[in-house]
Amino acid sequence: MSDDRRLDVLRAIVEDYVATQEPVGSRSLLDRHQLGVSPATVRNDMAVLEDEGYITQPHTSAGRIPTDRGYRLFVDRLSTVKALSPAERRAIETFLTGAVDVDDIVQRSVKVLAQLTNQVAIVQYPSLTRSTVRHIELVALEGSRILLVVITSSGRVEQRIIELAETPTENLIADMRSRITRATVGERLPEASLRLADLIQTFETNDRPVVTSIVTTLTLTFSNERSDERIAVGGTANLARFGSDFDTAIKPVLEAMEEQVVLLKLLGEATSGLSVRIGSETGHESLASTTVVSSAYGSDDLALATLGTVGPTRMDYPATMAAVGAVARYVGRTLADN
Amino acid sequence: MSDDRRLDVLRAIVEDYVATQEPVGSRSLLDRHQLGVSPATVRNDMAVLEDEGYITQPHTSAGRIPTDRGYRLFVDRLSTVKALSPAERRAIETFLTGAVDVDDIVQRSVKVLAQLTNQVAIVQYPSLTRSTVRHIELVALEGSRILLVVITSSGRVEQRIIELAETPTENLIADMRSRITRATVGERLPEASLRLADLIQTFETNDRPVVTSIVTTLTLTFSNERSDERIAVGGTANLARFGSDFDTAIKPVLEAMEEQVVLLKLLGEATSGLSVRIGSETGHESLASTTVVSSAYGSDDLALATLGTVGPTRMDYPATMAAVGAVARYVGRTLADN
DNA sequence: GACTGGCACTTGATGGGTGAGAGTGCCAAG
DNA sequence: CTTGGCACTCTCACCCATCAAGTGCCAGTC
Description:
Two copies of one chain form a homodimer.
Chain A: H1 2-20, H2 26-32, H3 39-51, E1 55-56, E2 65-66, H4 68-78, H5 86-97, H6 102-117, E3 120-124, E4 133-140, E5 145-152, E6 157-163, H7 170-184, H8 189-199, H9 208-222, H10 225-228, E7 231-234, H11 246-258, H12 260-267, E8 274-278, E9 290-299, E10 302-312, H13 317-337
Antiparallel strand pairs in A: 1-2, 3-7, 3-10, 4-5, 5-6, 8-9, 9-10
Helix pairs in contact in A: 1-3, 1-4, 5-6, 5-13, 6-13, 7-8, 8-9
Chain A binds a DNA duplex through helix 2 and helix 3.
C-alpha cells in the first residue's frame, strides 16, 4: 500500500524535475500533485527512496533529484506511453512522404525527429549488410576503366570506378556481368560475397586478373564499412537544453557526434523494440548526464538500421520514446514503399 | 611617423587580445611588446585609435578590444602571412592522399581543417554546375526501369533510376545513349542541359515519350540543387572556444551549421583568393562575433567549390588564413590528380 | 503502526558594503 | 611630441548578514 504511494512520489519527483529542472522538495511537490498526505509523510517516503538509491540530494538542505536508477524505474514501470498528437503524426507523415531517395529519407527523418523531441537526433543509413543485391551492372568507360554499379534492396546505389591493367573485351564484360548477376542477385550481401569467391575459378586463366580485380572491388563494396556506418546527425542547436556547463554537458556530446564509431555504439544493438540507455548505462563516462533513446527500424521482419535521440537524462521520457518509436515506424514504412 | 607607431599599437592590441582574450591596457601591452615609448604615449595613441573606430572599451576603466574595423585593418595591412610548419604541411598531405573518392576527400579535408585551426570547418562538395560531363550511361534494368549514370569531371558519380511507362527496345537505348553522349560529353552542365532540350526533336515521334522522360531526369540531375549544395561540417566541439555564453555565441553558429542555405551564403562568392568576413561583414546579425575565413578551391583555372572555417572574431588570423589557403590548395591538387 | 504538526537546523542564494587592482584621461613639464 | 604624475572610474572578489526552502526528527494523534 504505502509502497504504491512511494512509487507515486517517485513519479511525481521525476515529472516535476523534468518540468522545472530544479530539485523538488516535499512542499512544492504537493503543490503540483494531490497525494492526499502531508509534507511530512512525503518526506518519510523520500528518505526511503533515497536509501534505495532512486533519488538524491545535491546538498543537505535541498530538494531531491532522480538518480539514473530512479529514471530507470520510471521508464520501466511508472510512465505511460504518451501518444503523439494527430498534428505530430501528420507532420512526420507529410515530411517523409516528400522524400525522393534513401538519402533524402534519412535526412528528413533526422530533421523531423530533432524537431519533435527538441533533442539531438541521429539516424543510421539503412545497412547494406542486411539488405540483398537487387541489380549489378558493369559498364566499360574510356580506356581500361570500368564502372561498377550495385543496387541493393534498400534502394541504395553504390558505384565504383575500377582501373584495370588491360582492357577487357565486350564479350568478357557481358559474360562477367551475367555470371555475377546469377551468383549474387537476391542474396544477402555477406552471402553474395561468399558466392563471388567461388566464381573466379570458373573463368579462363587468361581472364582471371580482370575478374579478380572486379570481384575484389565488388566484395569490398559489399562489406563496405564506410557506407555501412554512415550516420546523419541533426538538431545540435538543441544542445542548449542540455545544461549550462559547456565542458561537462555539451562538449562531450559534440565530440561523440563527430566520432561515427562512438555514435554507432550508442545507437547500438537496439533490438526490434525501443531501447533507452540512461546516464551511466550508455557506457561512456563523459555522457553521464545523457540519455540515448533508440529504436531499430526496417520493413516488417528485417531490421535495416537504427535511429534515435541523444538528450539530457532529465528529459521527457514518454514523449521522447513515443516520438522515436513513431519516426522509426514511419521510416520503415516509407523505405518499404520505396 | 607616429602614424606608423599607432598601427604598431593596433597590431599589438590585436595580437595580445587574441592571445589572452582579455582587454589589453597600456601597461600590460608594453610588458609584451617593446615599443620604446611610455604608457602615456600608448594611451594617447589608443585614444586616437578609439576615435577612429578601430578599438573600443568594454567599460570606462578597462583595457581596449579591437572592433570589427580594427580586425579588418589588421587583416588587410598589419598581418604577415604565417607559413605553415613542415609538420602541418605533411599532416595535410598524408591525410588527404589516403582518400579513395570525392566524398572521402571532402570528409578528410573537413577533419584536417578543423584540427589545424581549432575551429569549425566547412567544406562544400565540388560543384556540379562548374564541372563538365565526362561520361553518360543508360542501362536497362528489369521491367521498364532504366538506370541512368552521370560521371562528371570532378569525379562525382550521380545515378538515377527511371520508371518508364513502356519498355524501350535495346536499339532505342543504345541510340539514345550515343546521341546523348555526343551532345553532352565535354560540356559544362548548364550548357549540356541546353543541348539536351534540342535533342528531343531529333527522335521519332513514337519514341518521344521515353526520350522526354529520360532527358527530363537528366536535366534535373544536371541542375540538381541538392547535391550541388551538399556541405560537410566538422570540428563543432571547437565551439567551446567561441565564448562562454551559449545563447549568443554558440547557439547561432550551431543553427547556421544546420541550415545549408545559410552556410552556402557564408562560404559565399569567394573569388579565387582568400576571403575573410569579420563580424558584421558576415551579414548575419546573430554571427556578430564570428568570423568566416573561406577560399575557393579547384584545379588550375576552374574553381570547383569553397571551403573555410567559422571562428570567433577574436581568432589567430594569420594562422587561420594560412591553414585555409593551404588546405584549399591541397584539396584542389588532390581532386585534379583523381 | 501509519500519519501529522511542529521545530530546530542546514545550506545555497541574494544583496549591500568595502578594498584592491587595473586602467583611463588630462595636465604641466621636458 | 613625449612623458611622469595624479585624480578618477570601474569591475571584481570578498565578506557578511539575511532569507527562503528544505530537511530530519520527535512527540502526539487516529
